[in-house]
Amino acid sequence: MSSRRFIALGTASQVPTRERNHNGYFLRWDAEGFLFDPGEGTQRQMQFADVSATSITKIFITHFHGDHCLGLAGVLQRLSLDRVPHTVRIFFPASGEKYLDNLANASIYKNFASIERQPVAAEGEIFRGNDYTIEAYRLDHTAESWGYRLKEDDSFSLIPEKLEALGLRGPDVGRLKKEGSLVVDGKTVLVTEVGAEKRGLSFAFVMDTRLCANAYRLAAGVDLLVCESTYLESEKIDAKTNGHLTARQAATIARDSNARQLVLTHFSQRYPNTRDFLAEAVTVHENTIAVRDGDFVDFPKRK
Predict the structure, then answer these.
(1) What is the pLDDT of residues 4-62, one digit of tens each?
(2) What is the CATH number of the domain that holds 90?
(3) Which of 64, 156, 273, 276 could form a disulfide with 99 if both were Cys (CB 3.0 to 4.6 A apart)?
(4) What is the pTM (predicted TM-score) of this model?
């Protein structure tokens, strides 16, 4: 199994259907697990997808409409029930903290979980990990809504033959990679001379929004873009009125932002299947998937 994989737990907009659960998305990222917008039924969907509560390290809420957050109460209680040993950070719109309070205290339970709240009020970097950053930018919806972007740090892949030619091995290799240069036999060797730049993987999560500059900003150059596509282009007036995107608009964001892979989700109950969403989007951005509940999506391979 890939150590970096996106899982669609639920793909319905506003109202669940027989085939689609309320929103819920999980990103496996090496030793971390990022849960996005847990709607009702997220715990059960996690069971189907083999996602354990202990694998959750961070939770992201884009906004506090019910289909994006009502499952959080159960998830928080599950963290306590399973005695998850690590701290779980929750990122959410700062203006909606009262709703987070309501969800965190929705019923009686023994609270053993270590939860760190990280309200989001300013655009830009909101978290730095060991080798990645998370950014947030405000979107254009009927309620305050934020999109999230994950970016792995760029690095260098060192070429063994070039290292061997210079007699570099062991601790010297580590120092060269960390410091960027190393003096060898009186000559300064730059890391760029013995390696190739490796661009870090990136991921963007763009949920309820109209077309706006920050949707493009979040999607810029990402390897994997998860984007709402609540309506088809034939209902674009409804989409704008209700603060949403059409499949064609989502694909336009992906194309114009040079996103490598587009994942469509958040489908309105008025559409019984997603074939038309995919057909509409691929005419604009070829590398597109319309996910179903339970689908796994790996990051696209690079040449």
Answers:
(1) 999 999 999 999 999 999 999 999 999 999 999 999 999 999 999 999 999 999 999 99
(2) 3.60.15.10
(3) 64
(4) 0.91
Asked whether residue 303 is domain-assigned, the answer is no
Q: Does 15 map to a domain?
A: yes
- Secondary structure in 3-state letters for the chain: CCCEEEEEEECECCCCCCCCCECEEEEEECCEEEEECCCCCHHHHHHHCCCCHHHCCEEECCCCCHHHCCCHHHHHHHHHHCCCCCCEEEEEEHHHHHHHHHHHCCCCCCCCCCEEEEEECCCEEEEECCCEEEEEEECCCCCCCEEEEEEECCEEEECHHHHHHCCCCCHHHHHHHHHCEEEECCEEEEHHHCEEEECCCEEEEECCCCCCHHHHHHHCCCCEEEEECCECHHHHHHHHHHCCCEHHHHHHHHHHCCCCEEEEECECCCCCCCHHHHHHHHCCCCCEEECCCCCEEECCCCC
Q: Looking at the annotation, which residues are catalytic?
A: 67
| Last residue in a domain, options 178, 195, 212 | 195
Q: Report pLDDT digits (tens) over 69-114.
A: 999 999 999 999 999 999 999 999 999 999 999 999 999 999 999 9
